[in-house]
DNA sequence: ATCGTCTATCGTCGTTCGACGATGAAAGAA
DNA sequence: TTCTTTCATCGTCGAACGACGATAGACGAT
């Protein structure tokens, strides 16, 4: 997640809101897709190609720990969700997050 | 721009394309909006609130060099374009970039 | 109880981001 | 010419990213 703007500079009450929750949320969601691997993961999940974490790891030529990290980021962004399916982790799209992202982009 | 996945690991021909130009492009565009300040700038430009670089700088409580850097990133992502208007820089949306981003997001 | 599988997390390392001040280049004004 | 304005770029610095291997925890199978 990109850290917030850090308004250190003395801000002379600029015209725009300096704490724009919409911009923050927007950036957070966009951040989830700001890496090719995460784009691939999202598309996999949307296509329902896969679900189990292992399947994702198998299809991405990166270390398991790295993939797990990307999954964590996607979860934090609210784009995916995961639940324990037996002993394996089953990931899927977080519909609200995707919907919100589409809404924000479409509203540009 | 997030650097590409760096497929160092010996990739045993995974199922997914390891060089997915669409994912790269998608990530590049999303990266432009992965920071609250850049979201604000884009929205300013779309709303035609401003155009001149100075106007943008005035509305963002950050140093001029920092704003200029964000503008550079947005230009590199293909989301905005800038042309010299007299002695001032006039920024505006890059319609194709925005269109492409909307298309990719909508196609999720 | 022991082994193997499946994930998440930790620690590390190099690179990039994001912020700043300072400087530089270009063009109009004095 | 000499300021002043406007914007981009440079150099720096701390923090976060992105990658990895190693490890730990949970569970089923043997």
Structural topology:
2 copies of one chain form a homodimer.
Chain A: H1 21-32, H2 36-46, H3 53-59, H4 64-77, E1 80-85, E2 88-93, H5 95-106
Antiparallel strand pairs in A: 1-2
Chain A binds a DNA duplex (30 and 30 nucleotides) through helix 3 and helix 4.
Structure explained in plain terms:
The structure is a homodimer of 108-residue chains. By secondary structure, chain A is mainly alpha-helical. In chain A, 52% of the residues lie in helices and 11% in strands. The first copy, chain A, has helices spanning 21-32, 36-46, 53-59, 64-77, 95-106, and strands spanning 80-85, 88-93. The longest helix of chain A has 14 residues, at 64-77. The radius of gyration of chain A is 17 Å and the shape is elongated. Mean pLDDT of chain A is 85; it is low at 1-17. Chain A binds a DNA duplex (30 and 30 nucleotides) through residues 1-3, 5-6, 8-9, 35, 37, 52-54, 57, 62-66, 68-73, 86-89.
Question: Main attributes?
Answer:
homodimer, 108 residues, mainly alpha, 2 strands, disordered N terminus, DNA-binding
Describe the structure in brief:
Chain A is mainly alpha-helical and 108 residues long. Chain A has five helices and two strands.
Provide the succession of SSEs of chain A.
Answer: HHHHEEH
In terms of structural class, how would the helical and strand content of chain A be classed? mainly alpha
Unreliably modeled segments of chain A = 1-17
Task: Give the chain pair forming the largest contact, with residue counts.
Answer: A-B, 44 and 44 residues
Helix content of chain A: 40-55%
| Mean pLDDT across residues of chain A | 85
Which outline of chain A best applies? elongated
Total strands of chain A: the figure is 2
> Which strand-content bin applies to the residues of chain A?
5-15%
Strand order in the largest sheet of chain A: 1-2
Continuous helix count of chain A: 5
Indicate the radius of gyration of chain A in whole angstroms: 17 Å
Regarding quaternary structure, what we see is: homodimer
Distance between the termini of chain A: 21 Å
Q: What does the largest sheet of chain A look like? A: 2 strands, antiparallel
């Amino acid at each position: 997640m990109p850290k917030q703007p850090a308004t250190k500079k003395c801000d002379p009450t600029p015209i725009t809101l300096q704490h724009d929750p919409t911009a923050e949320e927007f950036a957070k969601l966009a951040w989830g897709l700001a890496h090719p691997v995460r784009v691939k993961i999202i598309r996999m999940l949307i296509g329902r190609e896969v679900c189990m974490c292992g399947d994702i790891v198998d299809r991405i030529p990166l270390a398991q720990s790295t993939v797990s990290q990307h999954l964590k980021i996607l979860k934090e962004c609210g784009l995916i969700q995961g639940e324990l399916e037996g002993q394996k982790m089953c990931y899927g799209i977080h519909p609200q997050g995707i919907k919100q992202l589409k809404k924000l982009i479409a509203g540009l």
